[in-house]
Amino acid sequence: MDAVLFDMDGLLVDTEGVWFEVETEVVTRLGGAWGPEHQEQLVGGSWDRTVAYMLELTQADVDPMVVGEWLIDGMESRLSRGVEPMPGALDLLRGLGDQGVRTALVTSSLRIIADAVLKAVGREHFEIVVTADDVTRTKPHPEPYLTAAGLLSVDPERCVALEDSPNGVASATAAGCRVVAVPGVLPIAQAPGRVVMPSLLDVDVDFLRSLVR
Q1: CATH at residue 92
Q2: How many domains does the chain contain in total?
């Protein structure tokens, strides 16, 4: 195993609830209503897709850049109060560090959001960070994971990606990674090259190594 590649929202940190609060706030400001059925459309998706979906839903005549700023401001404000790592996430990162396994963070969030999260989690856990600002095509396209593997100079097929969303799983699979899925908001089925686990508490370094032969 050359490296372990971590998703962020919903996998590394418990931010899906925070996103829901901010999305609800922004859509209300646009004159619409927001529910779980709307969030499900966006889990693991791109920033641009989120803004476009909100404007399509509300039919509001607001500049997409302004809507994006509202989202950023809301997330920064909440993340500044701290963010909760998902169960088992920090123990797994420490275990990987102790054994010298290289790691990367691969997220569809903007770098400003990733930086705010990493202040709480610890930037030192990751050799590289790939965000929406670093690619032209976000998940479910394979570019984010291919970019991470390229920056690490490793073979994607010898990497394990940890994901919580169907979009993220599709991205990592298309890049050639082995995938461990820990479903969050949306269900994820077992499939060749993919293992579905209930929690990162059930994942350790030896288990990840066993997936790459």
Answers
A1: 3.40.50.1000
A2: 2
Do residues 8 and 98 both lie within one domain? yes
Are the CB atoms for 51 and 36 separated by under 8 Å? no
Supply the angle between the helices 111-121 and 64-79 in degrees, to the nearest 10. Answer: 0
**CA nearest to 113, candidates 83, 90, 142:** 83
**3-state class (DSSP) for residue 106:** strand
- The model carries a pTM of 0.88
Q: Which residues are registered as beta bridge partners of 104?
A: 5, 128
Residues 46-103: tens digit of each pLDDT: 788 899 999 999 999 999 999 999 999 999 888 888 889 999 999 999 999 999 999 9
* Locus of tokens 């396209």: 141
Catalytic residue positions? 7, 9
Strand pairing of 3-6 and 102-106?
parallel
Which tens digit of pLDDT belongs to each residue from 165-202? 999 999 999 999 999 999 988 899 999 989 999 999 99
pLDDT at 137: 95
Q: 181 - beta bridge partners?
A: 163, 196
Is residue 185 a contact partner of residue 39, using CB atoms and an 8 Å limit?
Answer: yes
Residue position matching structure tokens 């123990």: 91
In this structure, what DSSP letter does residue 4 have? E
* Residue whose pair of structure tokens reads 């809301």 in the numeric block: 74
Nearest Cα residue to 208 out of 178, 170, 182, 188: 178
Could you give the count of Cα atoms lying within 13 Å of 60 in the half-sphere of its Cβ? 20
